[in-house]
Amino acid sequence: MIDAIVISNVLLWAVVLVLMVTVLALARQIGILYERVAPMGALMLDSGPKVGEAAPRLDIESLSGSRVAIGGAGNSRSQLLFFLSPTCPVCKKLLPILRSVRHSERSWLDVVLASDGEPAEHLAFYRSAKLTDFPYLLSAQLGMALKVGRLPYAVLIGDDGRIRAKGLVNSREQLESLFTAKELGVASVQEFLDQRA
Q: Which of 32, 54, 103, 139 is most deeply buried (CB count within 10 A of its CB)?
């Protein structure tokens, strides 16, 4: 009887050791996979002012009639400029995420929507999408100054008036990668990952 108990205990410990080795091997594989499929941040395009440079200083009237100052040193808050279009399905998908970001980051960030085109079309979109709580700028000058060529595009301007991050954003992860890049002091998450490699 005692021999059976000893044998069963030895077998149980052998099973536990095999399971531990299996878990460690899986954890290692997950680490390798994470390095291969690193998080993808906003895609930076090589045009326009570079990260770290001063953002163009502009004072633009919003669709609601208020004036919005873009860039410039000495602001007490950072600005996220989100370039969109009424006909862009990805832009529309990101609107609830922008509302969430505006709420969660309200202590330090102002979210500003920007576009260009026909005022009547944008005003109808502004009202139908219930965007009246966002500053919405209709300015070709702003898009040209920042060299925005594709949508949806976002530019994060620090409270010092300098561009902290920018790029094409198609998801919450890419939008939040702009904040991560700012916190890490790098131009993009990809740059940070390349530095670590």
A: 139
In residues, how long is the chain? 197
Q: How far is CA 70 from CA 122, 133, 143, 161, in A?
A: 20, 18, 12, 8
pTM of the model: 0.78
Nearest to 82 by CA among 66, 95, 64, 71: 95
How far is residue 189's CA from residue 162's CA, in Å, rounded to a whole number? 18
pLDDT per position as a tens digit, 160-197? 999 999 999 999 999 999 999 888 888 777 777 667 76
Q: What stretch of H or E contains 181?
A: helix 172-184
Joined tokens for residue 186: 């790098």
Tell me phi and psi for residue 183, to 5 degrees. Answer: -65, -35
